[in-house]
Amino acid sequence: MVTKTEDAHLNRLENQVDNGGGGVWEYLCLVRKLKLRRSEKVLKHGLSILNDPKKRSALGPDEWTLYEQVAVAAMDCQRLDVAKDCIKVLQKRFPESKRVGRLEAMLLEAKGSWDEAEKAYTSLLEDNPLDQIIHKRRVAMAKAQGNISGAIEWLNKYLEIFMADHDAWRELAEIYISLQM
After folding, report:
1. I want to staple 142 with a disulfide (CB 3.0 to 4.6 A). Which of 29, 47, 92, 150 is the partner?
2. Which UniProt keywords are present, listed alphabetically (predicted)?
3. Are 70 and 77 a contacting pair, CB within 8 Å?
4. 110 CB burial (10 A radius; 0-12, 13-18, 19+)
């Protein structure tokens, strides 16, 4: 939940960035910290940093975090070419990373390659069965395909492991309500 203060700060920064007043990196960090999806703006402003070698190198190790943030934003905006390029850079830097593997699976999902994405998620869960993000991606993937019973099944499996996740319980309840169960 975003507080009023955080929301005001975000809106002020967003206006500043949109009007060329600087603060792009601060804005991107705040969006990430608050776990918001402002995909079009993240894509636009993130690429402005990544495409400028001087700005990009000034980030130090945060460069990789920005590549990940921009890749997700690009998938949200259906700019799969940009997402693929970002993931390729991350893959080269972190060849055995499960986190990059998750991004690759998300790209398959964004392309509509559901079976391939499911195989990738299954493989990643074999290595780390407690990866909450992957479990949640499976739910999202079932919902995206209109497979409500599949989403319910994945949510129930998720909640067997992560019983304290209030948002997941709420999501399951909302699905049941929508089905008038």
Report:
1. 150
2. Endoplasmic reticulum, Membrane, Repeat, TPR repeat
3. no
4. buried
The identity of residue 77, as a single letter, is C
- CA-to-CA distance for 1 and 164, rounded, in angstroms? 17
DSSP state of 123: H
Q: Residue 109 CA to chain centroid, in angstroms?
A: 12
pTM: 0.89
Which domains can be identified in the chain, with CATH numbers?
11-100 (no CATH), 109-181 (1.25.40.10)
Kindly state the helix (H) or strand (E) to which residue 159 belongs, with its residue range: helix 148-161
Contact present, 71 and 103 (Cβ < 8 Å): yes
pLDDT per residue over 74-99, tens digit each?
A: 999 999 999 999 999 999 999 999 99
